[in-house]
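Regression test attached.
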Amino acid sequence: MKAAPLLSVENLVTRYFAPEGAVTAVDGVDFTVRRGEALGIAGESGCGKTTVALSLMRLVRGGEVASGRIVLDGTSLLDLSRRELDGVRWEKIALVPQAAMDGLNPVYRVGDQIVEAITAHRAVGKAEARNRASELLAKVGLAASQLRSYPHELSGGQRQRIMIAMALALEPDLVIADEPTTALDTVTQARILKLFRKLQQDLGIAVVFISHDLSVLAQTCDRVLILYAGQVVELGECRELLRRPRHPYTTALVKAFPDLGRHKHKFAGLSGRPPDLAKPPEGCRFAQRCPRRREECGETEPALVEVAPGHTVRCHFA
Amino acid sequence: MSGHWLIRRIATSALVLFVALAVNFAIPRLMPGSPVDLLAGGAKLSTEAREALVTRFGLDASLGEQFWRYLLGAAQGDLGLSFAYFPRPVRELVAQALPWTLLVILSSLVLQVLIGYFAGVASAWNAGSRTDTVLSTVSLVFFSTPLFWVAMVLLYVFGFQLGWLPLGGAYTIGAAYTSLFARVGDIVSHAVLPVVSLTLAQYAAYQLILRNNLIGVRKEQYVLIAEAKGLSDAKVKHKHAARNALLPVVTFLGLSFAMSVGGAVFVESVFSYPGIGKLMYDSVVSRDYPTLQGCFLVFALVVVAGNFLVDVAYRFLDPRIQYAS
Amino acid sequence: MKRQEKWLRLWRRFSRRKTAVFGLCVVGVFIVATLLAPVIVPYGPSDRAGEPFEAPSSSHWLGTNDIGVDVFSELVYASRISLLVGLVAAGVIVLVGTTVGLIAGYFGGYVDEALMRVTDLVLILPRLPLMIVMAAYLGPSIWTIVLVYSVVGWASLARQIRAQVLSIRESSFIEASRALGAGKGQIITDHVLPNVIGIVLANGVMEIMFAILAESGLSFLGLGDPTHKSWGVMLYFAQLQGAFLRGAWWWIFPPGLCIAALACAFNFVGTALNDVLSFSEARQ
């Protein structure tokens, strides 16, 4: 029995405008997210992770979603007007951005910023919204008195908690967390991740969790999607994918984090860099850096194929 | 903490005023020729008249003593006697003129900031588009056009040709007002052209500063989040983005008092508007040096006070500053 | 060779801007006009060639003024004074501002502190009133205008140069040549100066605009030299003799348009230079 997924993304193509021409940062990405599920998206910087996140909320700057479909709970997001979109944003889909501490406006008190998110969508009074905000702060382990603070008076970890509280303010169906812990120290990072995972499970919210760090995803996600040069190269159940990566790129990523799975190798280290997306190469995009490369790899582009139930790979030799 | 800051700020303002006084004191004494000749304004004086002048202005004392007396006098508001309106004290003349200048400068500053704000936000939000190009070019043209000439052209078109607005002055001389409303209306109609000229010539800087800052601020994460929260475009623009780009604009507002008093000299001269600027212009023409220097001092005072108030306002705008240093 | 290529690249980027090229053309037209003034104009700049307040006609393209001088002839000759004063004043300002900025930025410490305090004071005092007071004592002449404008005008350029020098000073090649035993003077001329030349150039062009505007303003207030008529002096007389009351728009519009056009042109060029040069610096 398969219920319709909460989010389905089909053939998403997102381009940035550059003086030299358009750069296709995301090129034909498909995936789905089920209700309450945590999907991880991993890849090197520049692979299109953040662009996917921004595309989901239609927040791409200096570019556009060129084609594809994004359907959230039956609503096609790309067909909405700005006003309709404003109704969906944060109500159904919230964002904890990269370097989340910079997501708070420095000139307003954090409480007011949370209240603003609530009153923009709900017909509630200031006082009621404020009560809701203190409840949220309790949930993320902060005292209600912090509502009166300005962002610069809080530590990085505290600001991060505020951002999470704000993302949960309307109990959205989906939260996109884009490298939410990058700027934090390891101890704080671990605490925040634990908190995030707990809240997500308690509230039954689906999450798209973006990170370059597979060990972070291993702690927080049900399934993982690996992006390379704007394309999906592997998608599968988290533990399975980390234990038995099928795509050579995934293998390299997994090896980069020796404490994952059973790979106790030294960091293998990929040589080279991802291809220039302004003019992507023919054939497999990973071919140039691939240890298993053969002649056909430079000629024909491999398709995504299902190698096991729920596990797809884009490689000629998977 | 904040008390400390206030004291320092007051001290700086006092220092600038002191420098203005010192400059004022020094200029006539640095110029070629004896101060007495300058004071006489080119008139040939008898020996007795010379001596009277020397005694009257204390020119027989040492420089240090002269300066000390000068400072004491200025502190008590003694700016000397006008040559042109002898023996009226300069203080009286500037006191009469100052309110008109403040009316023009302050109304124009409000307009400059408003126009600069909306034009700046519009061009930053559409950076690189046609709107941006047009708005930027228009402001650049006004910025490069001499203010007094803009004033002359406006006077010609709206005063002489169309006859919509009065040709000069601050109010209709000898008018009997039937109501307060009529009086205010009269004053406003006289102020329109001076204020508009000053505004057109000086709004550009605000637009440019806001535009450049806003383009940077727009890339900030919190602007993205504001939009992600489902706030309307107007709220994202004005409440979240522009509010943060406004701080440099406020800093500039402090500096712009110096520009505005300069502008006041031009518009008041063109429109015969009875403010400090017109007074200054008239004293150049009549070589009325005490009044000329009094006007300079009052302008310096306006600039210092304006700067000070803006600085205080700045602290309320940016919560981060209260805690820094 | 490499330097030549760099300038060529900058020129290409500069010439791609329509406003910049337009500005350059306008400046060119004015320069040609000043050089060829006697050839272009039908009358001398102070010949009483017609009746007072004659409207524009085929014999007087821009009419005549209150004493019957041909406005067009007067206008073309006036461009000489306006341009000359603008260039000289801007030159002085660039010289003083650059020197102060270089010294403050390079030597730092007390020197910097002292120079910047003075700079701040000059920046905060009301410029125009100060110039008026000085000029009133000095008496009307073009050199008065150059002098008073130079006294107040150098400060903002000095600030910018200083900021640029501070950032250059920390860069590695200076450290290297210091280690190699180069003296301070040599470091300034060999390393610092070439790197601020871009800012100096762009700002220098802008300073010409400001100087032209300042000259016209001071002259309009009656502080200009009545024997060397600039556009500002023309407007001063126009205002004084009630040109508007006589409906003599031809006496008022052309000088103002010339000032605006020339100032705009320098502004366009300066803005483009600034963009092109700061862009190339950011790239390196």
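Expected vs. actual: identical. The mean pLDDT of chain C is 84.
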